[in-house]
Amino acid sequence: MRMPFCMIMLAALLAYQSAAGARDIFVSNLKGDDRAAGHQATASQDLRGPTHSIGRALRLAAQGDRIVIENTGEPYRESISLVGSANSGYSFQRFVVEGNGAVLDGSAAVPPDAWENDRGPVFRFAPPHLGHQQLFLDGRPLPRVVADTWADRPPALEPLEWCLYDGHIYFCVEPQKLPEDYPIFYAHHRTGITLFHVARATIADLTVQGFQLDGVHAHNSAQDVVLQRCTCRGNGRSGVAVGGASRIDLTDCLIGNNGDAQLLSLPWSETHLRNSQLLGNTAAGWVDRGGQVVLEGNLIRGGLKEHLPGEP
Q1: Conformation bin of residue 85: beta by default, left when phi > 0, alpha when psi is -120 to 50
Q2: What is the mean pLDDT of residues 262-270?
Q3: What is the mean pLDDT of residues 123-145?
Q4: Which residues are paired to 128 by β-bridges?
Q5: Has this prediction a pTM greater than 0.85?
Q6: pLDDT band at residue 248 using 50, 70 and 90 as cut-offs
Q7: What is the mean pLDDT of the chain?
Q8: Could you identify which of 9, 127, 200, 210 might form a hypothetical disulfide with 89, taking C-beta atoms 3.0 to 4.6 angstroms apart as the criterion?
Q9: What is the CB-side half-sphere exposure of residue 57 using CA atoms within 13 A?
Q10: Proportion of the chain above pLDDT 70, given as a percent
Q11: CB neighbourhood size of 104 (10 A)
């Protein structure tokens, strides 16, 4: 049965009015408060100021809103999810997460008393999550040596190298030093940004790093989602993983220093790359496990060692 014209117009009018009321929700991990409403960028006693966490702002959001993250110079140490219509846009107005160059970081400091000596300059500790990991010094991934899981011992390590073996992270210190002499972090939170049943959303100018699995994971039915000018680096498995009937656009993005893949495509997904870099420094630029990847408008298959914009 066809919908009467007047009902179509009424539905369109209601959608327009909802979009016209779309809000900016402000976030600051220095001056924000998760009891606040996020209505303004400056803190206030009436709790109209910014939220402290991005996750709280996303829970306050409605369709077509914009999350405005303050780049305070301090990482946002949390794992966030965009879920359902409340974190989606309209056909004429997108839902936006504006990062302003901020960093979403999933790492945590290794407790000094967690280390035990293995032999000589090599120490080890057992992280709570295994399978994929990263180790960081001064915010940068340390060089990893891949261990043979069938070997009787972990591989030999040079100073500042590490490996994952038999449920432990092994780390080699420099002469006359101990692990507690270094500000060492490991990948603690599992995934940086999870996308689940969202549509017409843009995430811009955000660095996502230090997560145990993926920086960004389009888990299921994420449609028309754009990552724009984002950097995804130093994550345990991949910078970006796309699967579950999702369609993602990577525009002007930089993806590198991830553990198993910079971009991981999974069955039933579609990923478009536009002027984005997939570095082949720590893993293949694109690992193809299904789905489709469209590079600068051309469908490609089989994975990529790396891709730099302007290459043929």
Answers
A1: alpha
A2: 97
A3: 90
A4: none
A5: yes
A6: very high
A7: 93
A8: 200
A9: 35
A10: 93
A11: 28
Is residue 15 over pLDDT 80?
Answer: no
Residue 241: both structure tokens together: 């993983």
| Structural domains of the chain, with CATH | 5-106+189-300 (2.160.20.10), 111-187 (no CATH)
C-alpha span between 255 and 186 (Å, rounded): 19
SS (H, E, C) the chain: CCCCHHHHHHHHHHHHHHHHCCCEEEECCCCCCCCCCCCCCCCCCCCCCCECCHHHHHHHCCCCCEEEECCCCCCECCCEEEECHHHCCECCECEEEEEEEEEEECEEECCHHHCEEEECCEEEECCCCCCCCCEEECCEECCECCCCCCCCCCCCCCCCCEEEECCEEEEECCCCCCHHHCCEEEECCCEEEEEECCEEEEEEEEEEECCCCEEEEEEECCEEEEEECCEEECCCCEEEEECCCCEEEEECCEEECCCCEEEEECCCCEEEEECCEECCCCCEEEEECCCEEEECCEEECCCECCECCCCC
Which structure tokens are listed for 176? 């006359």
